[in-house]
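tool_log.txt
---
The assistant was asked to compare two proteins side by side. It first ran the structure predictor on the initial sequence, then on the second. Raw inputs and outputs are pasted verbatim so the downstream comparison step can read them without reformatting.
(1)
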Amino acid sequence: MPSPHPHAHPDGRAGIDAALVERLVAVQFPQWRGLSVVPVEVDGWDNRTYRLGDAMTVRLPTAAGYVPAVEKEHVWLPRLAPSLPVPVPPVLALGAPGEGYPFPWSVRRWLPGETAARGRIEDLPRFAVSVAGFLRALQRCDPAGGPAAGLHSWYRGASPAYYDEETRRCLAALADRVDTDRARAVWEAALAAEWHGDPVWFHGDIASGNLLVQDGELAAVIDFGTSGVGDPACDLVIAWTMFDGTSRQAFRDAAGQDAGTWARARGWALWKALLNLTGDAGADPVRAAGELRVVDEVLADHDAFG
């Protein structure tokens, strides 16, 4: 969910390649010198990830805006992991800037599994319940001292009002593609449903690419770069981006959130879909169709539950 960001490096990759990773590892962690370094098959925008040998990965932020996640994950993932029902990335070492690379970076243990494409999941409602169970477990983790929602989380966990101006600008630009009157009602309902609960842990980017499956079951959750402590509404967006029908209802029932939290979640989903439609996705017929489907599903959900 978090990309693209306004602080992204112009080339999106900060000059990162396998040769750089080999040099960083050789200098800073000579015990792993000589292990193979290979890009992962499915990579993200915020970080570049490489396999290091058979059992580890190296993860390097692509721009300064993503750097806070390195220390955050290094400190908090080991504390959260024992309370969660599936593995999260085990951080093995924290690397320092060097070899011309300007940011801290990390070495993690490799987690087996494939990203959660729907075709890899035989029972989607059951999978939805597993994802909701992970979120409930995360929310039960002790929030004391955790990083409060803000810039480091791209304001996930804070009020969607941070993106009010951007959302209204997108609505104006998409007047010929979406039902802007209904969409505006969804957005305004999200802003009105202010969160007054106790802060809880949130992941910030619960999406199919950050959920790993084995044999069709949830096997791990990765990429806690936008995590923090605050409002959990942002973690419900997957209800419309991945689930539908019976799987969405199963997720809704198992997630156990109140109406206001769902209203804010619809706002988060709407903002992201509109933003994507005004960006590169809007020019790609396949991607645009997917974003328009999310908008339609969110509007219908508001009509039914708002």
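(2)
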Amino acid sequence: MSTISHDLAPFLVEAKRRTYAGLDDNATVAAPLLRGSKQLEHRAAPYAYRDIYFGMGFFVGQETVSRDDRVIWSMSYSGGVRAEITDRDTFLAIYKFLRQALLAVRAEEPYRGPRLFEQADMVYRNEVEGSLDRFHGIETISRQDGALLYELRYGGGLLR
């Protein structure tokens, strides 16, 4: 792994825990670059993290990490709660559970959450292939009985 990758993974974990996973939309900047988007940011020199996404039930977004004002890493993602789930309480419970899973992100795979996370009646699974320089994955949330509630696909890596 390059020097950039060595300290990039711990930074990504910190950034993710200090933005959506830890603070939900409370980490949103007041004036996002793209109108209608949510924009979350975290800085710890020499790195700066930015997550910009659109939507909620189904959403699309991109995370970037800059080092010394040059974007060096990016991940795009899209997914959300299944369309037939319209009950607000269920919807909010799924995203609350998702944030709990995302808080368990680890430096070994700093993309989304852990490979498996269970709490109450929900199960989070994250299947990922690759490494920090090039990866892709899919995360799902199901009930214990196997009913799929949420799905997201993601991919990215070091830019060159």
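---
observation on (2): The chain is about 20% helix and 45% strand. The first strand starts at residue 38 and ends at 44.
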